[in-house]
Amino acid sequence: GxxxxxxxxxxxxxxxxxxxxHRQPAAIMAPPTECVFFDLDDSLYQNGWATMxxxxxxxGEYCTTVLGLPPGRDFELYKTYGTxxxxxxxxxxxxxxxxxxxxxxAHDVPLEDVRPSPGLREVLRAIPHRRWVFTASIRxxxxxxxxxxxxxxxxLGIVSASxxxxxxxxxxxxxxxPRCFTAAMDFAGVPRELAAGCVLLDDSTTNLRTAKELxxxxxxxxxxxxxxxxxxxxxADAAVASLLALPAAAPELFAARPDxxxxxxxxxxxxxxxxxxxxxxxxxxxxxxxTESTSAGEDLEDAPARGLGLGAKRRRLRARGxxxxxxxxxxxxxxxxxxxxxxxxxxxxxxxxxxxxMDDLAAESSSP
Length: 368
Description:
By secondary structure, the chain is an alpha/beta fold. Helices cover 32% and strands 8% of the residues. It is built from 13 helices and seven strands. The radius of gyration is 20 Å and the shape is globular. Mean pLDDT is 73; it is low at 11-28 and 271-367.
């Protein structure tokens, strides 16, 4: 079946994730899943927008105190250009050489509200496909959040729409620009002709719209706006209150590919027999992330070096990361399958219904 064949809305109860009790049969079988891209902020973790509100406040602070712009100008730029940094650069308010400084300042926020979600690790590990983070935030922020969530080792890499590599490739554009999506496929090693095998899980209706236009499959994460009204997104093939409800809303994501032997594994998972960890580095060619963690204040100037030309030291570091961590099959057997069965058997209090029209960009949380 194909979760894109009928829109399913799974709503979590107070105690357990939801289970879709009914699904319409798919008319056309879905293409094999090549890669699953997860948005970070308000998707892999959810805290009522607390963290991103802090980032937004830091953006405003930089614009007023460092650049001398009037209050509210940062939001005007965000509304016009999709991100504040794009607007600052395009209107000549921020030199390109100062973009890394601006982004580090904006993301230098406390993360006490980013907490591990019980069961999230088991849900992610049960997905037997390549998993990447695709975020509008900087890589260092993503690394910090993933470490706090205890799931950093479950992803092959991080694609940051705010990274120097992305900007060099597509210019100063927002994450929902189609060029960012095609670049994400390139970084993850997915051929352009296999776009239908990509899946995006995101809380942004604008990002989901772009993904759908490019042929990706889509899952909306988060069912309510800030005012408590329901998010409307006709571009979502499925919708979940949180990723804990994903097994019910999109069970196809948990089915192993017929050619599962060719799959890649993240550092915290069992590698297939004979795989050269040092050579593979558990990263797709051209990856813009590193397995080792970094702090929010790390200099970004050396970021272009994190492409194909990996040094021997980094290869060894990544090999060690791949050797360590929790072990477990990434496919449809072992602990992940047991965890999935537990979710499906223990979940109650579910409902599902069709998704109405597209949400307005103004209702979404802002990003730098």
